[in-house]
Amino acid sequence: MAEKLALYDATLDSRLLLGTARYPSPAILAQAIRAAQTQVVTVSLRREAGGSRAGESFWELVRESGARVLPNTAGCRTAKEAVTTAQMAREVFATDWIKLEVIGDEDTLQPDVFGLVEAARTLSAEGFRVFPYMTEDLVVAEKLLEAGCRVLMPWAAPIGSGRGVNNLYGLRALRARFHDVPLIVDAGLGAPSHAAAVMELGYDAVLLNTAVSRAGDPVAMARAFALAVEAGRAAFLAKPMTPRDLAQPSTPVLGRAFDEGAA
Question: Which of 3, 126, 154, 202 is most exposed, with the fewest beta carbons within 10 Å of its own?
């Protein structure tokens, strides 16, 4: 039986979460969701108005996919704004899950970690299952857990940059410190190899949007990421070899043919 991923009140088969923004068309989005075999999709309340025709069309697409909705507070700049958006999202999407974003810098879209912790504490007290978008900071992670979060979502690089892992040491340290907490890398991954790399570090899942939606072939890229996530997880569980500074022969040298020139 395949290993499951436990996130709050859900048990999932897939370790790839997929964003739904900026796809060329709804049809391509639907195909990408199927190709990724994802069971969780994120959506912004600001983009999908629940009562509009576009919102109804989006809801129909999600229902047909069978994926669970993870609303987000994208675009929020303060804790108060994020809390209000989360409360609205709970009404619109009928879920206590919320991907919490409180942005502090316009150029890098780096989280405002002070507002993030404040909003996480408020929302957790109101019964939300909070998925906080955060930096790889160990102290911030501790504060978010104290605020009631049971999942952490550190970035690898700025949102939409496709740079891959900017701080390998930081992600390794976070995984080592919080070995029992589900950790999902969110933001900055641009290629399937990036996803495989973070999964090999022992991360539990990845969340993607731009790397798939803006690819030349989003459907094929969604499938490629799904395979990379699966391969990275399998590699982590198989315990990769430890890197060495010097060569070590993989072929045994005992019993090799006698070297006549040495006689």
Answer: 3
Listed in sequence order, the residues at least 6 apart from 260 whose beta carbon sits closer than 8 Å to its beta carbon are none
For the stretch 181-205, pLDDT in tens is 999 999 999 999 999 999 999 999 9
165: left (phi over 0), alpha (psi -120 to 50) or beta: beta
Active site residue 239: no
Tokens of 89: 């999202």
Closest CA relative to residue 150, chosen from 177, 119, 183: 183
Which of the residues 4, 80, 99, 143 is marked catalytic? 99
Angle value at C-alpha 33, between 30 and 39, nearest 5 degrees = 130
Side-chain half-sphere CA neighbours of 263 within 13 A: 5
pLDDT class for 63, splitting at 50, 70, 90?
confident
CB atoms within 10 A of CB 195: 31
Tokens 């999902």, residue? 184
Q: How many residues in total does the chain contain?
A: 263
CA–CA distance, 66 with 68 (Å, rounded to integer): 7
Strands 5-7, 10-12: pairing is: antiparallel
* Helical ranges in 147-191 per DSSP H: 168-177
CB 226 within 8 A of CB 35: yes
**Element holding 88 (H helix, E strand):** helix 79-93
Strand partners, 130: 98
